[in-house]
Structures are given as C-alpha cells and as structure tokens.
C-alpha cells in the first residue's frame, strides 16, 4: 500500500492551492481526483479581485487562458435599474481552462491518481482502485464529493446556467429573476454565461425562470441545454467542524465556504486550500495542532462569510425592494453591496 504524509482529494481551486503549499514545503503528498484534467465544472467563472490576489499569492498565473475584464455592470431589482461601475473589475474565465491551467502548474503525473474516493477508515483512504495510507487528509472534493457524508443535510443553493453565443456588453445582476437569489449575465471572451440561483424552487421551475430571465434581457435559450448544480450555503456551525479527528481537513465547497449573497466560492476555495496546506505543513514540521491552526488561519474568512449572511437577508428578504432602493440611492451603500460581486 502506498503511504503519503498528506493526501489531497479533489483538484479544483481548493485542492490545487493545498497541493501548491505542500509542494513548496517539500512534504510528501498525493492528489486524487475522480476526473482527469481538463474536466468540466459548472460555474459562472467570475474571479473577484480577492480571487486574483489569492492566485498571485499562490504564484498561479492566468496567462494562456482566455479572460475578459468587466467593470461596468447593470443591477436590476423589483422595479429598479441602475448602471454601476464596480470598484474592481471581475475577471471572467472558463472554468474548464482555469482549473486545467492551475492543475498543470502545480501537479505532475507522479503526484496524481485519477481515482474516485469511496471510504475512509482510520488512516486508510479507499478508492475504486485501491487503498492508501495517510497522516493527514485534505478534502477539497466540492459540494457533492465523498466528504459530504461529514455534513449531511446541509443547506444549499440551486443554480442553473446556459452559455449563449451572443456576447453581453455588460455584466448584469438581476435580483428580481428569482426568489431568494439572483440572475446573472457574465460576458466572456466568446460568449455569455447566463444563470440564476436561489434557495427555493425545483429544477423545472428554475429552468423556466432562466428562460424568462434570459428573454427579459434579449437572449433566447434552449431549455434542453440548461444545466444545474449546487452551491453550499455557508454555516458557522459546519465551518467549526471542518477538522475531523485532528487529521482530516475540509476545504472550499466541502467545508461550505461560499458567499451567501453572490455564491462566490473560488476565492474561498483557494484561500482555505492554502490555509489547510499551511496548517498541515506546520503540524508535520513543528507538531502543531491542525484543528486550532486551521481554524485560526481561516478565522477572518469565517468572519467575512458570517457578515455576508446578514447582507443575504437584506438582499433576498421580502423587503428587498426597500433595501435595494435604499442602496441604489446611496453611493456608499451601493458600493458596499456591489463589493460582494467584485
Ligand atoms: C452555476 C454555478 C456558478 C458559479 N459561479 C461562480 C463564480 O462566478 N465565481 C465564483 O467564485 N464561484 C462560483 N461558483 C462557485 C464555485 O464554482 C465553487 O465554490 C468552487 O468551484 C469550489 O471549489 P472547490 O475546489 O471547493 O471544489 P470543486 O471545484 O467542485 O472541485 C472538486 C473536485 O473534487 C473532485 N471529486 C469530487 N468527488 C470526488 C471523489 N469521490 N473522489 C475523487 N475526486 C472527487 C471533482 O472531480 C472536482 O474536480 C459557482 C457555482 C455554480 C454551481
């Protein structure tokens, strides 16, 4: 049986960030993903300035992948429309290219196994192809990975999306597209990603709402090509349990680290993966306690995500129209709300 100091499950943003730290620290590690790269991941592909700064901190480059920068946005709420210049541009990427580029910058064939994780027993990780022994295990396997068994029944947003060949001039955020969420038009280099997500509703209902939302903004879409996926809703209680038995660390979507207002998860995945790698490296080199180190490193992330839960109530409550009108009429408040998206 192969033995590693650390096994990282999942090679999206969280997993790659963790691997980068372990690699730079000279620690023996293995990355496991059920998909080989490039692989598809349903996502709007909007990188906020937080994500871009985190990529710089990790030494991950965006060069070689198609990007587009958006600073001009239009915000819609019930009966209200406002043009907004965002404080920071949103960098638009294709997730398939973004993840593949990050993967190839960090993980080589010797450190990678394309296998699906099926179980954990003590210090043994089981996959569909065999068993591995680990000292520490980092789960970065997303919202629907094996690690969801540690947080059964957690709340999630449901999102649907479609790529249109037509290119929208501006980034659009429409709070009236769906109850408890919003619709978006994300202009990419060669198409527009059109989507919506919220907390309530069924797949068929959301597909219909997406068609209506797209039509409202002048886009026709083929309902049969709409795809759906989940985003976890941040919970402080779940976050506090993201280290299990002092040796298993949950990161990114697996730890529920996403923004409750915008659904942004890439930054939180990169940052938590980075901190998980640091915490485990410290445990291996200095005998530090992983749980207190990881929760200490990520305290600020948790604080900012908890604040977003409050803004979530404001944006998605029954009094949305009142709050949005208030925000749109006040440039400081508006800047605060739109900071969530940039
Ligand atoms: C429709 C939609 C739009 C979004 N738009 C944005 C956006 O514009 N900006 C933004 O910041 N965030 C966005 N998000 C959120 C963002 O996509 C996620 O938060 C982010 O991908 C989380 O990264 P991660 O590394 O935790 O997990 P993931 O990127 O999901 O990676 C998990 C990896 O684990 C692997 N895996 C899963 N199970 C197993 C297993 N059993 N064994 C082995 N490997 C496994 C998977 O193959 C995958 O490669 C969006 C999400 C959705 C659904």
Note the main attributes of this structure.
globular, alpha/beta, 342 residues, 35% helix, FAD/NAD(P)-binding domain, eight-stranded mixed sheet, binds flavin-adenine dinucleotide, 16 strands
Indicate the topology:
Layout: E1 2-9, H1 13-24, E2 29-33, E3 46-47, H2 49-58, E4 68-77, E5 80-92, H3 95-106, E6 112-114, E7 117-121, E8 124-127, E9 131-139, E10 156-164, E11 171-174, E12 181-187, E13 192-198, H4 203-216, E14 227-232, H5 236-240, E15 243-244, E16 248-250, H6 266-286, H7 290-297, H8 299-316, H9 320-328, H10 331-339
Parallel strand pairs: 1-2, 1-9, 2-6, 4-11, 9-16
Antiparallel strand pairs: 3-5, 4-5, 7-8, 8-9, 10-13, 10-14, 11-12, 12-13, 15-16
Helix pairs in contact: 1-3, 1-6, 2-6, 6-7, 9-10
3D structure, described in words:
This protein is an alpha/beta fold and 342 residues long. The chain has a single domain (2-339), classed as FAD/NAD(P)-binding domain (3-Layer(bba) Sandwich), CATH 3.50.50. It contains ten helices and 16 strands. It has helices at residues 13-24, 49-58, 95-106, 203-216, 236-240, 266-286, 290-297, 299-316, 320-328, 331-339, and strands spanning 2-9, 29-33, 46-47, 68-77, 80-92, 112-114, 117-121, 124-127, 131-139, 156-164, 171-174, 181-187, 192-198, 227-232, 243-244, 248-250. The strands form two sheets. Strands 1, 2, 6, 7, 8, 9, 15 and 16 form an eight-stranded mixed sheet that branches. Strand 7 and strand 8 (124-127) form a beta hairpin. Helix 9 packs across helix 10. It is globular, with a radius of gyration of 20 Å. The relative contact order is 0.18. The model has no long low-confidence stretch (mean pLDDT 93). The chain binds flavin-adenine dinucleotide.
